[in-house]
């Protein structure tokens, strides 16, 4: 029992050191690596791929940002005229996932990836599914 408590304490301390990375490169158009903690509209492999997001005319990065932030535990890390990087932080261990969104013509490029660990237990795919529903409800896609 004592070993388990020590291990959990160490994990909590280490995970508490995970902060937002303001210098992160834009990877929105890159396919995922081989870790199953990433999904992308730019990846053709089945376990990583996402169906395209086709934007309605008039959809703006500001409106998309508002919808994405409404998913909870989210903070805008980078914002440009056609690009967003939003950081999502898990409740318990404070792990950070990056959601990247880029407008290209009438398409929204979407990439969501966990920064740490190998598997995310499907969290990024579920988040993107929730984003798709919220964007549809807001008539943005």
Known CATH architecture: 2-Layer Sandwich
CATH class: Alpha Beta
Mind telling me the C-alpha Rg? 16 Å
The CATH topology turns out to be TATA-Binding Protein
Number of strands: 6
Task: Give the averaged pLDDT, no decimals.
Answer: 88
Q: CATH homologous superfamily? A: Kinase associated domain 1, KA1
Describe this entry's structure for a reader:
The protein has 141 residues and is of the alpha+beta class. Helix content is 27%, strand content 25%. The chain contains 3 helices and 6 strands. The chain has helices at 2-15, 61-69, 123-137; strands at 38-40, 53-54, 74-79, 83-89, 96-104, 107-114. Strands 1, 2, 3, 4, 5 and 6 form a 6-stranded antiparallel β-sheet that branches. Strand 4 and strand 5 form a beta hairpin. Residues 12-22 have low confidence and may be disordered.
